[in-house]
Amino acid sequence: MMKMAIKWQWLLKKHWAKIVGFLITALSYVLALRLDLFDRVYHFTTSFEPVELGEVIPALLVLLIFMVWYMSDRRKRAEKLRKEQEEGYIAQLTASKSQYETLLRNMNDGFVVADRDEVITFANRRLSEMLGYVDGELIGKDVNSLLDRENRNKLRSETEKRRFGQSSAYELEFITKDGGRFPAIVSAAPLYDEQGEHVGSFAVVTDIVEMKSLQRQLKEQAEDLRGKNKIMDDELSTARKVQQSLLPHKHPADSGLEFYVRYLPMLAIGGDFYDIIEIAPGVTGVLISDVGGHGVQAALITMIIKTMVEAMARQSKDPSTMLTRINEGLVDMFPDESPFITAFYIVIDAVSGKAVYANAGHPYPLLLRKGCGELKELSADGLFWGGYAQAEYQNQELDLKDEDIVLLYTDGLYRLVNEREEELGRDTLYAIINRSLGLGPKELVERILANIDEFTGRSLELDDICILAVKVNLSQEATFFEPS
User: Fold this and answer.
1) Is the pTM for the entire model greater than 0.90?
2) Nearest to residue 388, comparing CAs of 334, 343, 344?
């Protein structure tokens, strides 16, 4: 019974309006039946005969009571629905506000809201931590009080943009609570009220302390590298002068030969090398060599070769013997890590026109004979220097005529590539030389280099280049052009 009573109490409390409405409707229906209101209304609406006012009033009263209750019930239902919707909206807004506040307070970057006078109205926990303040301590502070004069002027300029609806990102250096400096990137945007009036700004403040520290370190390292590079450049300049001093600048007297050379190292110093040695009156040795690699190591090896060539060239006029002895010396000098070195050596007797040459893995030089119209390779086989102590080299003999030109070069001359990554190659080089037959040594070399520049589009060299032209003048005094 107790449960039934509680249940009825709950139903009355929960649905009293519906129950009252149902009772009023039922009472009105019973009253209408007792007063024959339905018959009277039907008779009145179908016959249109006049009826007594007293007969209609009860029906009108019942209808009025029902309508008043019905309208009141609808109003209450609508009011309840509106209230429930408002409560739902408020709950959603409250939840969203809480979420946004949590997001802003816990974000990794600082977040600040300031009014038109730059007074802080909101600052998240992260911003307070950045500047050394307790959470909430920044509220009410003027942003300008956190900046020095230079940064206040910068802020003033950026704030003016906000007044015109512009957003911007800029760098500021804040003053922390303990007087330190805190660099940051500020990304700010204007803030508007419900009427669209500008009421202030909000900004995300990003910590760039580590970035600034890294920039300082990089700057210091760059300055250190510049200092070291200057020292290295000075040393390379000295090394270049030393290496240039090792190259021949004078021709042997009365050699009967005309020389022209262009030496173009990839770096300040290179691994290409040439030498001209007076063995005896009218007998001249010409050497060209290419040390694998570039830079200091290759240049040092060329200096060693220069010393060995000068020591051995006058001991023997035999090219194969000299190449053999230098190879043995290099193998002894570099037993573990032998360098890759090629060389070609020719001995020319300008009186008789006889020449003897030997090759240590070097690209074949070319013989250009006036009126012949074709090139001849001075072919000779032999292993490169420094690889095998037992390497042997064979002499080849050549009869030279007046105005013959022997053209010696290193492989960098034909290994150049153009912008399409196409290598010049030997065939193209030979075609360029064929078109230049009949020219003197200087004109020949410069014409070759000009054509190569045209092919490559004057791209950076990928290797050292050395090209040396030797013209035989059996009846003329020798001349020599200094290397450039």
Assistant:
1) no
2) 334
